[in-house]
Specification:
Elements lengths: L4 H20 L1 H4 L3 H6 L6 H12 L2 H14 L14 H14 L6 H9 L6 H33 L2 H4 L12 H50 L30 H10 L4 H17 L6 H7 L4 H32 L4 H7 L6 H9 L4 H37 L5 H24 L1 H17 L1 H10 L5 H21 L5 H21 L6 H11 L6 H10 L9 H26 L3 H21 L8
Helix pairs in contact: 1-10, 1-17, 4-10, 4-13, 4-14, 4-17, 5-14, 6-12, 6-14, 6-25, 7-8, 8-10, 8-17, 8-18, 8-19, 8-21, 10-14, 10-17, 10-18, 12-20, 12-22, 13-17, 14-16, 14-25, 15-16, 17-18, 19-21, 20-21, 20-22, 21-22, 23-24, 25-26
Length: about 600
């Protein structure tokens, strides 16, 4: 354990700074609901983009990506398609603009814009509120306990208890750290709203740039050449066939067991299914969390698209400098006692083991700030999204539509306190409710795709269809883990998709269509492509000068070019740190060519507003 007083001082200065940001922006945030929840829709797109990227630099995701980089090598670049990482390309090309044109404050308010409030349209509004609040608080709870366990590795209780009037059993140390940093994060988010979150994320991102470049430089300097790494044949190859083709048996038996436990074989089939699911999830648009709130906070539809572009540019190269740097250091020194004993057979311990063993004092404090800040940014953004749904879609809609700014502020603070308390309680009970919460999150997202995809592209899809599509998908996703025990969830995803799609289509056709005036307003405002024939005809009849969106083929081309550019941009730092100049040059050239194409076919064609 190498943490020193200078590291603790660096962490303390960071915590004080973000709290000052929250206090300073409190007055601006209290002006109105939009100022608090959406930053007054006045922040520039590049700030929101960096903030969004900073929030995505999450702690558990980074630890997982380091683990798969060590075992899968360069091919690990493809595995984040499980999320999918390329959904930001769909957002950049067209979906962010479609979402922002609604001028809604939350995803639930967007449902009223899409379906109206008649013929049972409130069903979609209610179920999306439930989805948003459950998913937000679940992620906050798991972030709480994950952060506590991470901090416990670097700051043992023996150091802290000397400054406190009480002692704790070892089993509750992680909970103490989790409560401490959760309450602190909630304070600055509660005080300054969206603007304080964005400014704190900006500070966090600048620190992460320093950290990532420093770790990458250490790895680059320590690595004589990629041939010196104890890796199997094919580890440095980006592409693959039906099988993964990595044989760790004579180098690292623990990696063999991880490959078996992951159940990603045959890798070619797994990749095809992963890509198909990722495309469908991306077509559905963002989940109602901090990502959606950042899009709704932009000044215009144009800036919403540019914000999603910025996320890709600032997140991936920086993150992969860090991930590849840590993976290289781990592989170089894996057989040394400090690393091998700390990791054992759990590769997700690679990240803390390398940081705790090889990062010098001073820089270690910045690294801890970076990874803690990642938690704080994700937690604060999710916290703000949960507040938005509670205040905007429950309090203002159902209890006090004419509330004054002072009343809205009070309810925002009160709801924030309740949300934090519930998330901490769930975190404290994580061992008992772990399986239930995993089911809830898995079920909600399993039932999310079909309904949320159809809402953009099919005019006949209505609120009842949205409700029954999500309900069928949730029920199926709850049942499948019992029917297909020991099966990777990705492999029974097609069944969940088919059943939820049947529920969505049947629910729509069995009930009245959405009011035509509501559909015309939606179509005229958003102007989506897809199966909108009757609505398009009605709008064009009432407004002969209206120009329908005929850009499906162009958007599809731009999405494909964007995914290639994103993958190349991810590969550049990986090949660079591994000292593979030819591959680095090719990846850079592919990125630049795709960027030039997108400049002409996407950027030059963005709307002015």
């Amino acid at each position: 354990m190498k943490i020193r007083a200078i590291d603790l001082l660096v962490i303390l200065l960071y915590l004080i700074t973000v709290m000052v940001i929250g206090i300073y922006l409190k007055r601006q945030a209290s002006k109105s609901k939009n100022d608090y929840l959406l930053g007054g829709k006045s922040m520039p797109f590049w700030m929101l983009g960096i903030s969004n990227a900073s929030g995505m630099f999450d702690l558990s995701g980074t630890a997982w990506m380091v683990a798969i980089m060590v075992v899968y090598g360069v091919k690990s670049i493809w595995l984040p398609w499980l999320w999918p990482v390329f959904n930001q390309i769909f957002m950049m090309v067209y979906l962010s603009m479609w979402l922002r044109r609604s001028n809604a404050a939350t995803g639930a308010e967007w449902m009223l814009f899409r379906f109206g409030d008649r013929h049972g349209a409130g069903l979609s509004h209610k179920i999306i509120i439930i989805f948003a609040l459950l998913s937000c608080m679940s992620f906050m709870a798991y972030g709480f306990i994950g952060l506590g366990k991470f901090i416990e590795i670097f700051i043992p209780w023996e150091i802290v208890k000397a400054f406190l009037p009480f002692d704790l059993p070892h089993a509750y140390t992680a909970h103490f750290y989790g409560i401490l940093f959760t309450v602190f994060t909630a304070c600055y988010a509660l005080l300054g709203g969206m603007k304080s979150i964005v400014w704190a994320d900006m500070l966090h991102y600048l620190i992460m740039v320093v950290v990532c470049v420093s770790v990458a430089a250490m790895a680059y300097t320590a690595l004589p050449g990629v041939a010196s790494l104890p890796i199997p044949h094919g580890w440095t190859d980006l592409f693959f066939g039906k099988e993964l083709g990595l044989d760790w048996s004579d180098r690292l038996p623990a990696a063999v067991r991880k490959l078996q436990n992951d159940s990603f074989a045959p890798f070619g089939y797994f990749f095809a299914l992963m890509a198909a699911k990722g495309i469908l999830a991306s077509l559905a648009g963002p989940a109602p969390n901090y990502d959606m709130q950042k899009i709704l906070s932009t000044r215009s539809a144009r800036e919403a698209a540019l914000m999603s572009m910025i996320v890709n540019i600032v997140l991936l190269p920086t993150r992969y400098l860090f991930i590849t740097g840590v993976a290289v250091l781990a592989l170089l020194y894996f057989r040394q006692p400090g690393i091998s004993a700390a990791i054992g057979t759990d590769f997700e311990k690679v990240l803390p083991a390398v940081l705790n063993t090889y990062i010098p004092s001073g820089l270690l404090g910045l690294v801890l700030i970076g990874l803690m800040g990642a938690f704080m940014g994700t937690f604060a953004g999710t916290f703000n999204a949960a507040q938005a749904y509670f205040v905007n879609d429950i309090y203002l809609r159902s209890f006090n539509p004419d509330a004054s700014n002072r009343q809205i502020s009070r309810v925002s603070y009160l709801s924030g306190i309740v949300i934090v308390c519930v998330s901490i309680l769930l975190g404290l009970l994580a061992k008992d409710v772990n399986s239930i919460l995993q089911w809830i999150v898995s079920a909600l997202y399993g039932g999310y795709i079909a309904s949320n995809m159809l809402k953009w592209y099919w005019w006949r899809f209505n609120s009842a269809g949205f409700f029954w599509g999500m309900a069928a998908g949730i029920l199926c996703a709850l049942t499948c883990p019992h029917l297909f025990a020991d099966t990777l969830p990705l492999y029974y995803f097609p069944l969940i998709l088919i059943i939820s799609a049947i529920g969505a289509v049947a629910g729509s056709l069995a009930t009245k269509p959405t009011d035509m005036e509501v559909l015309k307003t939606f179509y005229r405002t958003v102007n989506p492509w897809g199966f909108w024939g009757p609505v398009r005809e009605a709008v064009c009849k009432s407004d002969p000068f209206f120009l329908p969106n005929r850009h499906f083929a162009r958007d599809l081309f731009n999405v494909a070019a964007g995914i290639v550019a994103q993958t190349a941009l991810t590969a550049v730092p990986v090949f660079g740190i591994l000292k593979m100049p030819a591959e680095t040059f090719v990846a850079t050239a592919v990125f630049l060519i795709c960027s030039a194409i997108l400049w002409k076919t996407w950027y030059k064609r963005l709307p002015h507003q």
